[in-house]
Design goal:
With 127 residues, the chain is α+β, with helices and mostly antiparallel strands. The chain is built from two helices and seven strands, in the order βαββββββα. It has a single domain, classed as Roll (Thiol Ester Dehydrase, Chain A).
Amino acid sequence: MELRVYYEDTDAGGVVYHANYIKYMARGRTEFLRERGLSQDLKARGYIFPVVRLEIDYLSPAFHDDLLRVDTVVEEIGQTSVIFRQQIMRPADGKLLTDGKVTIVCAGLTGRLGSLPPELLRALQTT
């Protein structure tokens, strides 16, 4: 997924604020699922997918007006969880900006853990 860095994404020095990379990664996961025909909003079907672990290495800064690319791959699928590997890079110079892993779990609307639904498993396995 590609995205443009807007002024509102940056600090006073024009550098992307660190928390915004996490937002970019969330968008990347949403688009990853959308490309596979699945909306991330499975709440209507009784599921939510909270993030329970986030690891991120900040390797190089992005700046106002940069065009960025978020690459998302499935690293591991468990019975109740998925680990995504996500990298953000700047295609103009090929610079890797962040490298991260995000673990989500499947829970019912009450918060109780449950098995990943079949439609999500199908979408994840078409990578």
